[in-house]
Specification:
By secondary structure, this protein is α+β, with helices and mostly antiparallel strands. It is 58% helix and 12% strand. The protein has one domain. Strands 1-2 form a two-stranded antiparallel sheet. The protein has a two-stranded antiparallel sheet with strand order 3-4.
Amino acid sequence: MNNTLRQVVSPKATLRAVPTPSWNRFPFSRWAPIPLRLIVGYGFMAHGFAKLAKGPDAFASILHALGVPAPHLTAWATILTEVLGGLAIILGAFVTLVSLPMAAVLLVAMFTVHLPYGFSSIKLMAVTPAGAQFGPPGYEVDLLYVACLATLVLGGPGPLAIDGIVRKRNKVGH
């Protein structure tokens, strides 16, 4: 087994080696960031493209109703952050850099729209012959996206990421 050893001081002041768990002992664990990149990137891009499909002016009017300053500029900044940031996350490119504005978009949505509705993102109100009826979503999904972005920033984008390819090239070149 390939466990990491750490020194532990016992009450008798003798040192002994104690095995500690290794999160990387499974050969596939290095691939764990890829599903995060795919779902976070796709989710952001889907939201950005939905705003584009309805028209940026429609989103700007929502922002105006919320009291967001410069609603047209903010609408375009949000759409570009979602589409381009989502693509960058999928590709594993500039993950740390693009995660900051993406997290900002999530936090603004959480505090301006979702917070009054509580935590849960799914509020089943009724089931009718037309289908399920849901109430307004809470901030749960916003927090999940922020947690995924934080995981990618702290743990790295994983294999098949442009950031890793660039890092390897820079090491070889020096």
